[in-house]
């Protein structure tokens, strides 16, 4: 193991350019395949647990999920472009605990939080909350589940 990673839990691995981004219990690292070197990136995220990452080949952006501080959008030069969390986007982020990320063929970013699911719409730069209703059995019938 690389000494830079000793004692750190690796939560996520994301292929990017000529190596791999590593989301750890203490921030973000980059593993260069060619020379097997590891470098710490984004020093301002040093104390954060990065639970998941999503790289978008089309835009060159990488999305980072933090267990304690929302979501970061990072450019190809590893500079933070946007930071979304409960403090600066309270209408959508009900929690700062983000567990997982995924992308779809429309370029949307699906964000799984401890309080539900968000979808980032890149065309408008806005979020949408997905709400799920559970099936509830009442004496007079069943209310079906719904997603809106």
Distance between the termini: 46 Å
Strands of the largest sheet, in order across it? 1-2-3-4
Q: What would you call the structural class?
A: mainly beta
Q: Output mean pLDDT.
A: 87
What percent of residues are in strands? over 45%
Q: Secondary-structure element order, as H and E? A: EEEEEEEEEEEEEEEE
The helix tally amounts to 0
Which overall shape is indicated by the principal axes computed on the Cα atoms? Answer: globular
**Helical content (DSSP H or I, runs of 4+):** under 10%
Q: What is the tally of beta strands?
A: 16
Taking the sheet with the most strands, its summary is: 4 strands, antiparallel
Query: Uncertain regions: pLDDT < 50 for 5+ in a row?
Result: 142-148
- State the assembly state of the protein chains: single chain
Summarize the structure in words.
- Strands 1-2-3-4 form a four-stranded antiparallel β-sheet, with no helix packed on it. Strands 5-6-7-8 form a four-stranded antiparallel β-sheet, with no helix packed on it.
- The chain has strands at residues 10-16, 19-24, 27-32, 37-41, 50-55, 62-66, 70-74, 80-84, 98-103, 109-113, 116-121, 126-130, 132-133, 136-138, 141-143, 146-147.
- It is globular.
- With 148 residues, the chain is an all-beta fold.
């Amino acid at each position: 193991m690389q000494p830079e990673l000793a004692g750190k839990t690796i939560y996520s691995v994301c292929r990017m350019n000529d190596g791999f981004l590593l989301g750890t219990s203490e921030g973000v690292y980059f593993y260069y395949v060619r020379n097997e070197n590891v470098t710490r990136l984004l020093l301002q995220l040093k104390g954060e647990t990065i639970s998941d990452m999503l790289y978008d080949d089309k835009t060159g952006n990488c999305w980072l999920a933090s267990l304690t501080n929302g979501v970061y959008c990072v450019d190809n030069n590893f500079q933070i472009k946007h930071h979304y969390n409960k403090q600066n986007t309270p209408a959508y982020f009900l929690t700062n605990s983000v567990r997982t990320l995924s992308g779809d063929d429309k370029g949307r970013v699906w964000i799984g939080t401890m309080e539900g699911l968000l979808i980032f719409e890149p065309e408008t730069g806005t979020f949408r909350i997905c709400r799920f209703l559970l099936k509830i059995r009442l004496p007079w019938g069943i209310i079906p589940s719904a997603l809106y």
